[in-house]
Amino acid sequence: MKIEDDDLVTFYPDSGATIFTLEMIRLYSVHLQRLPQLSLTWHQRLGHRGASVFNFLVQNKVIDCRSLENQNQCNVCHIGKQAKLPFSISDSVISEPFQLIHSDLWQSSTPSASGFKWYIVFIDAYSRYSWVYFLKSKSETSIKFHQFHQMIKNVYNASIKYFQADEGGEFIGLIPYLQSHGIIHRFSCPETPQQNGLAERKHRHINDMAHCLLFQAQLPSHYWAEAVQYAVYIMNRLPSAPVKNGIPYFLLHKQTPHYSSLKVFGSLCYPSLIKKSDVKFGPRSVPCVLIEPPGIIPLSSTSSSDPSLLSTSVSVTSQPVNPVLPSNNAHLMVTRIKAVISKPKILPSLLATTCEAIQITPTSYTEASKSSVWVHAMSEEYDALVHNHTWDLVPPNRTHNIIGCKWIYRIKYNSDGSISRYKARLVAHENRQQEGVDCVETFSPVVKPATLRIVLTLAVTSDWDIHQLDVKNAFLNGFIYETVYMKQPA
């Protein structure tokens, strides 16, 4: 067959046959485009749900298409649903100490008593023994690592082979030093703490124990560095699950640690003082708190001795501290008065036991009516309300917002702790009032301490006479401009 240029087709049959020439229709090229699969279209209609939900609808004949076999062909799912792959457990084998050292930094929001804000921890992957160094800024990281590396070489006569840390700037600066000493630095990928999980987990162990030690000793938070150091000291001497309950101290030093030297963190102790004076009958010791082995600090509330007189000594007698008063610094509500005036510090004897009479304040009218002193207090309050024409009796109306009332009881004390007065107040339920209808402000105006100090300053500078007086039921002399409907007290 031959196709001519003028769209004529000529057939050449076998020899001896007739040749036929046929006129054909003009030929055109056809381009086919593959239509998207119907299952992928339904996948897009259903908001890119997973294959399990999609195939469930197909099996129940809710939609008419084939099952979605490969969801990876949808580019939108890759862009909108991409997640981190799970991390498998590391199968690397550590056969000797200092083969791999993990390290990481931790920052405290409160500076320590020595001005530290950071600590860096170094962990031996073989024994899980930890070392902690404290820093005042992150720029000291290289200095602390140099100290740690020199200590490893001098004390253990060993060298570090691998160093695992993140890509923080403080560790990037260590690269020249690591390369010069033949230490291979393993970087963690950004935002991937799993690759340095040993150090991340160690932070939690250390901080959990340090928190418990501070709460146990009832020390302020700026002693967190001492608590962290004590926690690391204890953890190095306790069995560790990752090394099959082996003791890090034993795995590194090949010696069993002595637990008899451990003391309770925050225990009361009496160290010997360094004799710096000729006073023969001066104190030979002061009460102190044991906060780290073997460091000690003087108790500011029980001793006024110069801390420089103390020395690190084995002559220390210690005993647990039994706090007299439990510390509770939680305040449910902070008022303007509490924000500027603090309570005086209570300085009882360390081993004293205090007890005082407890006056129970009633919480309901039923309880108060059983006591004559509270009945008299309620009578005084009611007489004052009537005398000041606080209310007018009117018939109730359903259209009015009628609120309830209750009695509030309080005991007023003198400066010496004796009872001055039993006070009872009849108050309305302000939670039932509607702002803008029957109330605008629901509190009594109180003079700010700053205003009071200004007035006293003016009086002193102008040589004025100051007179103080107390007005009973002073709030009843005020005026309210809204009409409030309240039920009568029961």
From TrEMBL:
A Pfam family assignment: rve
Looking at the record's lineage, which domain of life comes first? Eukaryota
Sequence ranges assigned to domain Integrase catalytic in this UniProt record: 93-256
Question: Which key words are in the record?
Answer: Hydrolase, Membrane, Metal-binding, Receptor, Transmembrane
Q: Which Gene3D superfamilies match?
A: Ribonuclease H-like superfamily/Ribonuclease H
Q: Which GO terms describe its biological process?
A: DNA integration
Which InterPro entries does the record cross-reference, listed alphabetically? GAG-pre-integrase_dom, Integrase_cat-core, Retrotran_Ty1/copia-like, RNaseH-like_sf, RNaseH_sf, RVT_2
GO terms for MF: hydrolase activity; metal ion binding; nucleic acid binding
Q: What is this protein called in UniProt?
A: Transmembrane signal receptor
